[in-house]
Amino acid sequence: MPIKANDGYYEVVWPRSPRQIASKALAPRLQTLEGKTIAELWSYVYRGDEVYAWLEEALKARFPGVRFVNWREFGCIHGNEEREVLAALPQRLKQFGVDAAVSAMGC
User: Fold this and answer.
1) Who contacts 41 (Cβ-Cβ below 8 Å, separation ≥6)?
2) Is 26 helix (H, G, I), strand (E, B) or coil?
3) Which of 1-5, 6-10, 11-15, 101-105 has the highest mean pLDDT?
4) What is the pLDDT of residues 35-58, one digit of tens each?
5) β-pair partners for 69
6) Hey, which of 7-21, 28-42, 74-88 has the most confident mean pLDDT?
7) Residue 88: strand, helix, or coil
8) Nearest to residue 102, comparing CAs of 81, 26, 93, 87?
9) Of 43, 74, 68, whose CA–CA distance to 56 is shortest?
10) Gyration radius of the chain's alpha carbons
């Protein structure tokens, strides 16, 4: 079977599909974390319990009055109950008066 010359050109398929939703503008950035309430969201992967403890310590030293809503309040955001946890998340963030959220460690 003869080899077909392609002169360096190959047929390719673009792996991305057309966008299904339009991009939205990001929420405005907080000027400071001083006096703000921060939610900790975690997928229970890696060592988030340790990392969040270090993060809280560092941010409390830098921003007086910063408050945290611990990841335990929200449940695992990835796993068997992921759909329920994420569906309830907007209401839970409002309930706790959250100004910002950190989602980390495998999320």
Assistant:
1) 71, 74, 77, 89, 101, 102, 103, 104, 107
2) coil
3) 101-105
4) 999 999 998 888 888 999 999 999
5) 39
6) 28-42
7) helix
8) 93
9) 68
10) 22
pLDDT at 3: 64
**Nearest in space to 97 (alpha carbons), one of 76, 67, 72:** 67
Q: Phi first, then psi: give them for residue 34, nearest 5 degrees.
A: -60, 125
Instruction: Name the token pair of 35.
Output: 């006096």
Domain boundaries of the chain, sorted by first residue:
37-104
Cα distance between residue 27 and residue 89, in whole Å: 17
pTM flag (> 0.85) = no
